[in-house]
Amino acid sequence: MGENRRMAPNTVTLAFALALVASLLIRAWLVTRQIRHVHLHRDTVPEPFAQTIALDAHRKAANYTIARNRFELISIAFDTALLLGWTLLGGLDALNTLLRDALQPSLGDLGYQLALLGAVTGISALLDLPLEAWRTFRIEQQFGFNRSTWRLWTRDHLISAALTLAIGTPLAAAVLWLMGAAGPWWWLWAFGVMAGFMLLAQVLVPTFIAPMFNKFEPLADEALRQRVEALMQRCGFRAQGFFVMDGSRRSGHANAYFTGFGTSKRVVFFDTLLAKLDTSEVEAVLAHELGHFRHRHVFKRIVSTFAIMLGVFALLGWLANQPAFYLGLGVAPNLSAPNDALALILILMAGPVFMFFATPVFAALSRRQEFEADAFACQQADGQRLADALLKLYQDNASTLTPDPLYVRFHYSHPPAAERLAAMRQRPAPA
C-alpha cells in the first residue's frame, strides 16, 4: 500500500519538464509582446498625457523598457539553462558526490550539508554576476540611472555575501538540524524558526543592516517635517523618525517607504525623491504608503507569505522521503544516509517553476492594494498632487505609458499609469 503512494521518477521528471517548458514559453511570449507593443506606440504620446509628457521623454521610456525586456529574454534563457544544469543534467548530483567524498569524513553530516548549500548558493551567485554587472553598467548607465561605481558595486556584493554567510549559515544549520532530529513534524518547527527570523528581520534590517549600505540622516527640511508629522497624526500613525537615504549614491530612481515596527518604525525618503517633488507632492506620496498600513496590506502580505512558506515546508516534509523526488530531478539519493540539504536545494530550485503560474494572481492582488492605497492618499492629502507626483516619477524613472495589457495582467505589481491616474480622477474630492 505504501509503495503505491510513492511517486515514479519519470512522473516527477515529466511534470518538472512540462512546467519548465510551459513557463519558459509563456515568459518569452509575454516579453516579446511587451517589446512589440511598446515599440509600436513609441512615437505617439497617449492622449491623456499629451499635454504633460514630452515626446522625447516618451521615446526614452520606450527605449528603456525595450532594452530591459530584451535583457529579460537573456536572463530567462540563462536562468533556464542554469536550472537544467543543476537538475536534469546532473550538476547538483556531481557537486554533491564531490563534496560528500571530500568533506563528510571530516565535517560530519551537518557540516558537509551546510557546505553543499553554501557551494550551490555561491556558484549560482557568481554565475549571475556578469548579468548583474551588465544590467547596472550597461543598461542603467546607458539611460542615465546608474550612479554606482565598480568599487561600490563590488563592496555591496562583498557585504551581501558576508551577511548571507553570517546570518544564513546558522539559520540553515537550524533548519537542517530540525530536519534530521525533530521527527516527522520537523517541518512545523522549521517553519516556526523561519517565521520568527522574518519577523526579527523587520527590526534588524532598518536598524542595523540597511545602514551598512546607505547613509540615513534625519530629515532636515523643517517645513516638510512639520507637514509629514501633521499627516502622520491625522492618519493615526507614529514613527520613531524621519530619515533621508542617499539613494542617489547608486541610482537615479526615486522612492519613499515606511518600514519596521515597534521601536524600529521609521519613514524613509530617497534623496532623489526629495529633489524631484515639492513638499505637497512628497506628502501625497507618503499618504499612499500610509494607505498600505491603514488597509493592513503589510500584515496581509506577511500572513500570505507565512501561509505559502508553511505549505512549502509541509510539502518538503513529504517529498524529502520520496526517492523519486531526487531521482526525477537528476540526483541519486543515498537511501542509507538521507541528505536533507539536497531536499532543501531541490525544492528551492523546482518550486519557483510551479509557482510561476500563480504570478498573475499575486500581481492582481498587488494592483488592487495599490488602488486602495491611492484612494486613502486622496482622502488624507491632495489627490491632484499625488497624480502630479506619480506622473513626475513615471517620467523620471522612464516607466512606459504604453505597456502591453497581457504583460501588465501577468507581471505588473502596480497599475499602469493610465489606469491609475484615471481612477484618481474618478474619486470625489475629500470633504
In short:
The protein is mainly alpha-helical and 431 residues long.
Summed up, the helix count is 15
Distance between the amino and carboxyl termini: 69 Å
Order of helices and strands: HHHHHEHEEEHHHHHHHHH
Instruction: Tell me, briefly, the overall form.
Output: globular
SS class: mainly alpha
What does the largest sheet look like? 4 strands, mixed
Rounded to the nearest angstrom, the radius of gyration is: 24 Å
How is the largest sheet built, in terms of strand order? 1-2-4-3
Uncertain residue segments: none
Strand percentage, roughly? under 5%
Provide an overview of this structure:
This protein is mainly alpha-helical and 431 residues long. The chain has a domain at 10-182 and 319-359. It has helices spanning 9-40, 55-86, 91-142, 150-181, 186-209, 222-235, 271-276, 279-294, 297-319, 323-328, 340-355, 359-380, 383-396, 405-411, 417-426, and strands spanning 216-218, 242-245, 256-259, 266-270. It has a 4-stranded mixed beta sheet with strand order 1-2-4-3. A hairpin with a 6-residue loop joins β3 and β4 (266-270). The N and C termini lie far apart (69 Å).
